[in-house]
Design goal:
Strand content: 25-35%
Oligomer: single chain
Shape: globular
CATH superfamily of the largest domain: Medium-chain alcohol dehydrogenases, catalytic domain
Bound molecules: NADP nicotinamide-adenine-dinucleotide phosphate, zinc ion
Amino acid sequence: MAKSPEQEHPKKAFGWAARDTSGVLSPFKFSRRATGEEDVTFKVLYCGVCHSDLHMTTNDWGMSIYPLVPGHEMVGEVIEVGSKVKKVKVGDSVGVGCVVGACHSCENCTNDLEIYCPDMILTYSTVYHDGTITYGGYSDTMVANERYIIRFPENVPLDASAPLLCAGITVYSPLKYFGFAEVGKHIGVVGLGGLGHLAVKFAKAFGAKVTVISTSISKKEEALEHLGADSFLLSRDQEQVQAAKSTMDGILDTVSASHPILPLIELLKTNGKLVLLGAPEKPLELPVFPLLMGRKTVAGSATGGMKEIQEMVDFAAKHNITADTELIPMEYVNTAMERLAKGDVRYRFVIDIGNTLAATKP
Ligand code: NAP
Ligand code: ZN
Ligand code: ZN
């Protein structure tokens, strides 16, 4: 008979888990493997709350395994390293993002694109090499192979840097890959949430002109005055959208729910590219004619490879890019999820694991 999550590994661990599709999270005792020779074990201090955590706790994508400990934007302090580990030492600030394993031999892995490996192992709710289920960062400790460990420079605020590990790389990677990271390019960012607000910051750091395309007029002032966007389009205002037609080189769409993409395609110039980053549970409708008439591209992109995540974290440190966060105690997480579902967050919830998780132990 399979061992229980609390007994399958030697090290005790504690976190919060969803037990079913209600998505409600509650305290959960489980265990972590011993530090292997290529492993790094760290104490989790902060963990961002990604909208993907919400999709997964409620099984929107039909792939959730319960009990499910979410969290793939975790940062903390190294407490133990295996004998072969070269990247980090005890006391260093580190983090883990969306991926904790891959085959390391396929074409994608060889090209530092572990995220696209057919055997890629997600940080939570996935079967690991040893047959056990992976558990995420809404927990006190983490163990990962050093390939999946990201180093944080000493001077960066860890709480506000945690969201770089998913939200940050998910916008940085396509900005670079699709040729948007250039001075003077006009980039649209659809949805001003966790991903969207970091997209504005990275695109501005690359010298692009940025237009936020949002359903929330309440975010206009912040987008322009605080986040540094150049303009703001209220997506339901036909006149505004009409006036901006054929002006954008690229659009990053971070919307988490089904929405029409025709108006976005129309915002693109000839040869423009619409890159879908949000992961709605239902398919979107793809209008073909507007693509033909303008040689436009609709593409997708998932986070980024480990090498690129490190590059992005170092770039963010150099350009003082961090997330705007609402730091919350562990017991607030269910309320945070309800607010996230309504787009009510400025702009990323980060759980203060180090200071508030232990107090919730039964
Ligand atoms: P978030 O903070 O909730 O932001 C999403 C934003 O989308 C909202 O703030 C809202 O912005 C807009 N929005 C929400 N519902 C909408 C609707 N029905 N119609 C139009 N706009 C709507 O979420 P997030 O953490 O940034 O994640 C966004 C999506 O990306 C999620 O689906 C997540 O699973 C996915 N994701 C994908 C990857 C990847 O690898 N590709 C990585 C991480 C996350 P406004 O108020 O400005 O309209
Ligand atoms: Zn995420
Ligand atoms: Zn591979």
